[in-house]
Design goal:
The protein is built from 9 helices and no strands. It is mainly α. It has 2 domains: about 100 residues, Rna Polymerase Sigma Factor, Chain: A (Orthogonal Bundle), CATH 1.10.1740; about 90 residues, Arc Repressor Mutant, subunit A (Orthogonal Bundle). α2 packs across α3.
C-alpha cells in the first residue's frame, strides 16, 4: 500500500482526494486521474468512435478539469463525479461542434405513428455490450442526439441549442436513430433465437 493509499484509502470519501488535488499534490492528481479516466472515457466513447479523437478529447477534458478544479465547490458525496461528468459532456459536445460537422437532416414533416418505432426497444434479449456496439455504430448525428436524449435526459430543445441545430432536426435524428436501433435489435434477436 502506497503512502497516498494510506492517506486516501477507499473508506475516505472523495472530499479528501479533492482537497489534496486542489493543494497541488502530484500523487493525488495521479490518483484522481486513475480513478476517473475510465468514467470519462466511457462517457466520451458514447459520442466519439475514433480512437485518436477520443484520446485527444480525454486529454483536453483532463486539462480542463485540472485547470478549473481549484474553483470547484464540493457539495457532498457524488458532487465531484457529477462535476466531472458535466465538464466531460460539455467538452465532448464542444469537440463535436468544432472538429466535426454533424450530418443531420431535418424532417419538415414528422413521421406518422405507424412509422415510429415502438416506444420501448426490445432490449431485454440483447447483451449490454451488443447494445453499446449498436449505439456506437449509429451515424454520428443519430448517435449524438440519441445519447443526449436517452442517456443524458436532455430535451430536443436543449439538444438543438447544444448542437446548433433546429428542434425538429434533433427530433428527426432521434427517431431515425431509434428506428435503426430497432432494426439492429430485431435482426440480432432473430439471428440468435433458437
Amino acid at each position: 500500500m502506497s503512502i497516498l493509499d494510506r492517506l486516501i484509502h477507499p473508506t475516505d470519501h472523495e472530499a479528501k482526494l479533492l482537497q489534496a488535488v486542489q493543494r497541488g499534490d502530484r500523487a493525488a492528481t495521479e490518483r484522481f486521474y486513475r480513478l476517473y479516466v475510465r468514467y470519462v472515457t466511457a462517457l466520451c466513447s458514447r459520442y466519439i468512435t475514433d480512437d485518436e479523437d477520443l484520446k485527444d478529447l480525454i486529454q483536453e477534458i483532463f486539462i480542463k478539469l485540472f485547470t478549473t478544479i481549484a474553483h470547484f465547490d464540493y457539495r457532498g458525496e457524488g458532487s465531484l463525479k457529477a462535476w466531472i461528468g458535466r465538464i466531460a459532456l460539455n467538452e465532448t459536445i464542444s469537440y463535436i461542434r468544432q472538429k466535426r460537422r454533424i450530418e443531420t437532416v431535418s424532417l419538415e414533416v414528422m413521421p406518422t405513428e405507424e412509422e415510429m418505432p415502438d416506444e420501448e426497444l426490445p432490449t431485454e434479449q440483447v447483451p449490454t455490450e451488443v447494445l453499446y456496439r449498436f449505439i456506437r455504430e449509429l451515424p454520428e448525428g443519430y448517435r449524438t442526439v440519441f445519447n443526449l436524449f436517452v442517456i443524458e435526459g436532455k430535451s430536443h430543445k436543449e439538444i438543438a441549442q447544444l448542437l446548433g441545430i433546429k428542434v425538429n432536426t434533433s427530433t428527426s435524428q432521434y427517431y431515425k436513430a431509434k428506428a435503426l436501433l430497432a432494426q439492429k435489435i430485431n435482426d440480432y434477436i432473430t439471428s440468435n433465437s433458437i
